[in-house]
Specification:
136 residues; alpha+beta; 4-stranded antiparallel beta sheet; 4 strands
């Protein structure tokens, strides 16, 4: 669903009909980033916060993100999760950024935000995300 007004994802919840924007934890976002490789989207960046969801020192966050992305690119979910307890951690994953070979970019956020650089979401990725995260 387009969000041209930039509303918070939770504003799209419809409790009366049992429809909720998914909220993903750190492990689900890391797993999604690994699974996205099957549809030719590579992990590029992981946005991290501290356990209180506060911004961290930029240099520490970028170094941790780079190490986690390396683990994701190699398909090692356990290593990526272990890196969440690295120096300055533990960390919480706020979003993952994925990119296709032709430069299409997808960002999936912890609280349900989903951004793509193309007019239409990448169908194979959306389908994979629905299956992986049990989104109906």
């Amino acid at each position: 669903m387009s969000n041209d007004s930039h509303l918070a994802p939770r504003t799209f919840d419809d409790k009366a009909h049992g429809n909720f924007v998914p909220r993903w934890g750190s492990t689900a976002l890391l797993h999604l980033a690994i699974q996205a490789r099957a549809v030719h989207l590579d992990p590029m960046r992981v946005e991290l916060r501290d356990v209180a969801l506060m911004p961290m020192d930029h240099e520490i966050a970028e170094q941790a993100s780079e190490r986690i992305v390396e683990a994701l690119r190699s398909g090692d979910l356990d290593a990526a999760e272990d890196l969440l307890d690295g120096p300055g951690g533990p960390y919480v994953v706020m979003s993952v950024e994925l990119e296709s070979a032709d430069g299409a970019r997808v960002v999936v956020e912890r609280y349900g935000g989903f951004e793509v650089t193309e007019d239409e979401p990448i169908p194979a990725f959306v389908s994979a995300a629905r299956t992986l995260l049990s989104i109906s």
